[in-house]
Amino acid sequence: MKTQVAIVGAGPAGLLLGHLLRLEGIECVIVERQSPEYVLGRIRAGVLERTTTDLLDRLGVNERLHAEGLQEAGFALADGERLIRIDTHGLTGKYVTVYGQTEVTRDLMSAAPSRGLEIIYEAMNVGLHDVDKEAPYLTYTKDGHTHQIDAQFIAGCDGYHGPSRKAIPATVASEFELEYPFGWLGILADVPPCHEELIYANHERGFALASMRSKTRSRYYIDVPLTETLEDWPDERMWNELAIRLGPEAAANITCGPAIEKSIAPLRSFVFEPMRHERLLLAGDAAHIVPPTGAKGLNLAASDVAYLSDALISYFNKNDHDAIAAYSDRALARVWKSERFSWSLTKLMHRFPEDGPFERQMQLAELDYIANSVSAQTSIAENYVGLAL
Ligand code: RFL
Ligand code: PHB
Question: Is any ligand 2 atom within 6 A of the Cβ of residue 193?
């Protein structure tokens, strides 16, 4: 098979890129290791920046987003006792939208056939070849046969564990990484949220997040040591801990219910540079990871793809090669700012094992400063709703 852009991975990055290219008549094919059911079974992000919803609007894949997405005008930071509201809309004029990554993925997958976007699921042993030559190609096996896709560019949208990043020689690359000493235990339940807006809490006992997927479906997280497993956290223990950590105001409104999903995700900050090597271009988690505090991962995947699709469209439709050359620097400038915000909010809102009473006082003083400073709130709001492209 021959195409213009071969895309590895049908997560949000790969699907958005495929759709944006098809909108401009550029040929592309997505190869995905998993089945559609598996892809749609992953529960991940829940908060979309305007930059992300703007892309879905541009694609016209937005009917359910507008019908079911919840526009959030603010969120709260909690210090165990009080809620400090950050009026994101009042301070920036922008909303974020609560609409699950699973739903974004579902919408993009369902719209693919009518937009001429081919997705090959259950493609095993995907290999990238000749990425530093004029004619790169992918190989994969499916149904016992080996297949080849010849392309002009390969887009590596295959997440943190995918093969694309590894096809860039270590001699030209740099990696920056920070692992955190805890994971997020998440629970999804069909109960109404305890609060209209998200709450990020830093309690003496640890972090908690109250989030939602709709007015009848809640998503909550707490941080747990990496040594703990799901068996340590039966539903009842999780609900009790949430009520303590979120503080009295939120606890009064928590409705408990059986978990429909429960998982533990490790936290990591990671950046891989450069995001382009000759004819291979990386986007999303393939090139960088942020801890979920701040809700930036999916949104960064979307902003990468906004830059990358611009560059590929300029190349194919205007014969302009400069945008491809500039892609990595352009994307990384925004990536590093989101890395900084996610890292700083993680440091502010979590208790680290090495922290003592002094560090606790520092966190409380910073939260109190934020509570009383419009400029501190504005800085947080600006980053939370998403920096300009
Ligand atoms: P994905 O979603 O990992 O998709 C990569 C795709 O590539 C496929 N793949 C392969 N395909 C072919 N061959 C191979 N060898 C392959 N290896 C992998 C995979 O099957 C998959 O389909 O990366 P992408 O597209 O870059 O999207 C990134 C986002 O998924 C991620 O950043 C967010 O989910 C992070 N994140 C959040 N981001 C936000 O913006 N807001 C949030 O509120 C938010 N909350 C979260 C999160 C991530 C979480 N977890 C579990 C890590 C909450 C959690 C708990
Ligand atoms: C979620 O709803 O899954 C969610 C919301 C906000 C975050 C992270 C995850 O910062």
Answer: no
Are residues 313 and 251 part of one domain?
A: no
Is 245 a domain residue? Answer: yes
**Does 267 contact ligand 2 (Cβ within 6 A)?**
no
81 is a domain residue: no
* Residue 160 confidence (pLDDT): 97
47 lines ligand 1 (CB under 6 A): yes
Q: Are residues 66 and 152 in the same domain?
A: yes
Give the pLDDT of residue 378.
98
| 43, 101, 334, best to mutate for ligand 1 pocket (most atoms within 8 Å of CB) | 101
What is the count of structural domains for the chain? 2
* Closest C-alpha to ligand 2, atom 5: 46
Is 335's C-beta closer than 6 angstroms to any atom of ligand 1? no
Q: Whose CA is nearest to atom 23 of ligand 1?
A: 159
Distance 25 CA to ligand 1 centre (A): 26
Indicate whether 259 and 231 sit together in one domain: yes
Ligand 2 binding pocket includes 298 (Cβ within 6 Å): no
Q: Quick one: 56 and 189 in the same domain? A: no
Classify residue 373: in a domain, yes or no.
Answer: yes
How confident is the chain (389 residues) per 10-residue block, as mean pLDDT? 98 98 98 97 90 97 97 96 96 96 97 98 98 97 97 98 98 98 97 97 97 96 97 98 95 96 96 98 98 97 98 97 97 98 98 96 97 98 96
- Tell me: do 281 and 380 sit in the same domain: no
- Is the CB–ligand 1 distance for residue 275 below 6 Å? no
Whether residues 187 and 322 fall in one domain: no
Are the beta carbons of 332 and 300 closer than 8 angstroms?
Answer: no
Residue-range definition of the domain harbouring residue 154: 5-70+98-176+268-346
Structural domain contains residue 309: yes
